[in-house]
Amino acid sequence: MSAALTALDPATIFFWLLSASLLLSAAGVAFLPHIVYSAFALLGALASVAGLYLWLGADLLGVAQLLVYVGGVLVLLLFAVLLTSRIADVRVSNLSAAVQVGVPVAVALVALVCKTIWLAPWPAAAEGAARHAPTTARLGDALLREHLLPFELVSFVLLVVLAGTMAVARRAIATAPEGGA
Amino acid sequence: VIGLREIYLVTAVLLGLGLYTVATRRSAVAVLMGVELILNAAALNFVGAARFSSGQLGGQVFALVIIVFAATEAAVALAIVLLAFRSARTVDVEESATLRG
Questions:
Q1: How far is B60 from A137, CA to CA, in rounded Å?
Q2: Of A50, A166, B14, B17, which residue is least crowded by CB atoms under 10 Å?
Q3: Of A83, A106, A169, which is closest to B23 when you measure between CB atoms?
Q4: Are the Cβ atoms of B72 and A157 closer than 8 angstroms?
Q5: Contact residues on chain B for A126, CB-CB shorter than 8 A
Q6: Is the CB of B95 inside 8 Å of chain A's CB atoms?
Q7: CB contact under 8 A, A58 and B55
Q8: Is a pLDDT exceeding 60 seen at residue A2?
């Protein structure tokens, strides 16, 4: 009786709802026949991950996930989808190949990892920790103290990516006149 | 009660779905979507570990770094995909087997 009650507390229900939405959307990305459908299923998966971040008490990460992924990466992906593939042609747009290789590899890996996870002893949740305290101030503090190196590394990578993407795009613009016509 | 084990099981299945997408899709953009799924599974693992193992924020910092790297990776990869599409008129990863435009 008490086990059934604790299994049905709202946090647990929310976790499984978010997980089900995440895995269903991810399955949509993997199996839907049309690439635009896959892109919109990816939207659901990324939003579910943002919800799981919030569930785990990482409020800044949840918002960053929404802003960066749903607002940025996904729009970029949709642009690429609409610009590149002849999307009306399902056969061209989102063909699956090597299913007889992909299915055994994915199933074997998931089975192995799940078995390991299931057998490993995991610590219980840390008691007494303020569960949904805001993390933004603490994260900013950590980024400028003990995690300064990853912060600077990310800044440098962003600079390199900015320059690299501009170099690639400039070449594309320069070659567009003879290639586009 | 949800523990680290349940979270890791969910992310393991997410990793499998992403791997399947990467292995079987032939459109380079769809392969990129699978990579995003795998990166999200990894970041979710870090956040879960940060929540359940201790009160430290190292896992969240790592997840933040993963989000930034995923965004930059998507920007660079999509630029390359568009360039390849301009020169080869296809985004099929099996047909664009040549490095010279």
A1: 13
A2: A166
A3: A106
A4: yes
A5: 52-55
A6: no
A7: no
A8: no
φ/ψ of residue B96, rounded to 5: -85, 70
Residue A6: in which H helix or E strand, if any? helix A2-7
Reported as a pLDDT band with limits 50, 70 and 90, residue A91 is low
A65: how many CB neighbours lie within 10 A of its CB? Answer: 29
- Taking CB atoms and an 8 Å limit, are A114 and B12 in contact across chains? yes
Asked whether the predicted pLDDT for residue A85 surpasses 80, the reply is no
- Hey, is the C-beta of A42 within 8 angstroms of any chain B C-beta? yes
Q: If 0-12 CB within 10 Å is exposed, 13-18 middle and 19+ buried, where does residue A58 land?
A: buried
Alpha helices in A32-98 (DSSP H): 35-55, 59-64, 74-84, 90-93
Burial degree of A114 (CB within 10 A; 0-12, 13-18, 19+) = middle
Nearest to B42 by CA among B80, B69, B72: B69
ipTM: 0.88
Question: Would you call A119 an interface residue with chain B, using a CB distance cutoff of 8 Å?
Answer: no
Q: Is A29 on the interface with B (CB under 8 A)?
A: yes
- Tell me, yes or no, if B6 comes closer than 8 A to chain A by beta carbon: yes
| Contact (CB<8Å) B47/A38 | no
Look up residue A14 and give its two tokens.
């929310």
Calpha distance A53→A14 (Å, rounded)? 12
Q: A17: how many CB neighbours lie within 10 A of its CB? A: 13
**Sequential DSSP letters for A132-144:** T---HHHHHHHHH
- Judging contacts by C-beta atoms under 8 Å, the chain A residues touching residue B60 are 58, 60-61, 135, 139
Q: What local confidence, expressed as pLDDT, does residue A3 receive?
A: 53
pLDDT in tens, A44-56: 999 999 999 999 8
